[in-house]
């Protein structure tokens, strides 16, 4: 009939709705005001008779419920699976829909995701993240450890889907040198088959660099994992580059990093560190940079630069830093908080003045700042202390600031940082990419941005 009906109301976000298999009820997630606590709720299909199935606390959700994820209901409608950090790692948990305590599906010191029930409702398939490698596993609730179904050695499995007969699983799989394709794996004999080919003939794969997984110690002894991309010919010296991920609650995986591959082909040794604050290494590691942006995590990046300097084929006198979003923020922090640590910096779509932005930010950014820094009213010193804008007078690093034009007031963040550098007579270049958001995503703009960033780095790191 085209008739629509509102099922939930109130000031809290209600997200990720799914029907129970019998179509009689809807299970969804409700976030609290801080987006740190979640209720998994069931109601009838008319929005009535709602009740809480499970409560989960202290799991900050940066993207309006996407990190916590969509609850998945077994085909008999009796059990729901959801993600939780209550063990110290993001694991899959189950809860009876009719009431009862949640139980860990297959507890491990690794990050689990992509949970989906088998048609028989006896098994749950999910991915397990071990230092950026995501393998496919299956577990029977209450029956001990999980069973590895597809272990790639290096690569990322995602988007799992059972076949109707429950004998195989379809999934996406990609590596650092191959775009993600669709595969299936048989649960009977473990044979995996690739169904699509985004790189026919292997021509693309043969031109790309397979990174080496490395680990190094930061200055306080904390172990930092990362990916090292090196040119094939190590008979000469190359400038080094730290490439920082966004987030900061995020991580580098065993997937295709197009921007990095381009910089490697331009003649750079590139290190992608999963600095403190990254996800994938447990809740304590993820929270290790709370109220300390540009502190310990910047020291991790500098320790990564020292690691590069120890490689015989790296020019120790020419190390740069770049990255997008939080990678841009940490690059700005390097400029202001660690003058001289890097010989060039290219912050991409970063933010440098958090007190100035608090009234202008997209809602998810504002929620993240309060989670990471505390409220501005009570912790304004943290907001200012983590803002590299207020220490620009210390800068000595040649800087190239870039971003898309965007449409909201926070898109001014990089422009104001560049203007302040110019006012203080610092070495800075600045460019805006039009007809794009603040984060540059339009293919033509991405291509030009890569060319521009590489040209800038060449001028200052290759002389």
Characterization of this structure:
- This protein is of the alpha+beta class and 463 residues long.
- The chain is built from ten helices and 24 strands.
- The strands form five sheets. An eight-stranded mixed sheet has the order 17-18-20-19-21-22-23-24, sandwiched between helices.
- A hairpin with a 6-residue loop joins strand 2 and strand 3.
- The N and C termini lie far apart (68 Å).
The helical percent reads 10-25%
What is the percentage of strand-forming residues? 25-35%
**CA-to-CA gap between the ends?**
68 Å
Whole-angstrom Rg: 23 Å
- Could you give a short account of the major beta sheet? 8 strands, mixed
Secondary structure category: alpha+beta
Q: Could you give the count of β-strands?
A: 24
Which whole number gives the mean pLDDT? 95
DSSP summary: helix tally: 10
State the strand order across the main sheet: 17-18-20-19-21-22-23-24
**Quick one: overall form?**
globular
Poorly predicted segments: none
Topology:
Elements: E1 14-19, E2 25-31, E3 38-44, E4 51-56, E5 72-73, E6 79-84, E7 91-96, E8 103-104, E9 111-117, E10 124-130, E11 133-139, E12 147-150, E13 156-162, E14 168-175, E15 178-186, E16 192-194, H1 203-207, E17 212-217, E18 223-229, E19 238-244, H2 258-265, E20 269-274, H3 283-286, H4 296-309, E21 314-324, H5 326-337, E22 344-348, H6 354-357, H7 363-373, H8 376-385, E23 399-404, H9 413-423, E24 428-433, H10 443-461
Parallel strand pairs: 19-20, 19-21, 21-22, 22-23, 23-24
Antiparallel strand pairs: 1-2, 2-3, 3-4, 5-6, 6-7, 7-8, 9-10, 10-11, 11-12, 13-14, 14-15, 15-16, 17-18, 18-20
């Amino acid at each position: 009939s085209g008739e629509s009906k509102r099922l939930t109301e109130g000031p809290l976000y209600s997200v990720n709705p799914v029907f129970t298999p019998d179509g009689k009820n809807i299970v969804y997630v409700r976030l609290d005001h801080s987006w740190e606590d979640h209720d998994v709720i069931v109601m009838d299909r008319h929005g009535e008779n709602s009740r809480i199935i499970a409560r989960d606390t202290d799991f900050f959700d940066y993207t309006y419920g996407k990190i916590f994820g969509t609850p998945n209901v077994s085909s008999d409608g009796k059990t729901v699976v959801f993600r939780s950090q209550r063990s110290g790692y993001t694991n899959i948990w189950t809860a009876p829909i009719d009431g009862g305590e949640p139980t860990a599906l297959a507890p491990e010191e690794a990050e689990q995701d992509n949970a989906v029930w088998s048609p028989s409702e006896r098994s749950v398939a999910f991915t397990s993240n071990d230092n950026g490698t995501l393998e496919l596993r299956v577990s029977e609730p209450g029956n001990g450890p999980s069973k590895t179904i597809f272990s790639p050695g290096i690569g990322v499995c995602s988007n799992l889907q059972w076949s109707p007969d429950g004998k195989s699983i379809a999934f996406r799989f990609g590596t650092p040198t191959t775009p993600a394709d669709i595969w299936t794996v048989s649960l009977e004999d473990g044979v995996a088959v690739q169904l699509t080919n985004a790189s026919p003939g292997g021509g693309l794969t043969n031109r790309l660099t397979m990174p080496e997984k490395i680990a190094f110690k930061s200055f306080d002894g904390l172990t930092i994992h990362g990916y090292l991309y090196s040119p094939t010919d190590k008979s000469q010296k190359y400038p080094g580059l730290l490439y920082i991920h966004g987030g900061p609650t995020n991580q580098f995986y065993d997937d295709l990093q197009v921007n990095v591959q381009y910089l490697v082909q331009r003649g750079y040794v590139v290190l992608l560190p999963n600095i403190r604050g990254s996800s994938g290494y447990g809740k304590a590691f993820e929270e290790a940079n709370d109220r300390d942006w540009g502190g310990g995590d910047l020291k991790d990046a500098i320790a990564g630069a020292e690691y590069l300097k120890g490689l015989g084929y790296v020019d120790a006198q020419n190390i740069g830093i770049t990255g997008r979003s939080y990678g841009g923020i940490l690059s700005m922090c390097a400029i202001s908080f660690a003058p001289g640590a890097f010989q060039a910096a290219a912050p991409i779509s970063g933010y440098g003045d958090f007190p100035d932005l608090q009234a202008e930010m997209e809602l998810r950014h504002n929620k993240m700042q309060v989670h990471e820094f505390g409220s501005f009213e009570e912790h304004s010193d943290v907001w200012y202390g983590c803002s590299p804008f207020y220490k620009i007078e210390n800068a000595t690093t040649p800087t190239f600031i870039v971003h898309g034009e965007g449409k909201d007031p926070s898109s001014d963040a990089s422009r104001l940082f560049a203007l302040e550098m110019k006012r203080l007579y610092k070495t800075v270049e600045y460019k805006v990419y039009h007809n794009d958001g603040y984060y540059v995503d339009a293919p033509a703009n991405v291509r030009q941005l890569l060319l521009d960033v590489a040209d800038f780095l060449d001028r200052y790191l290759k002389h």
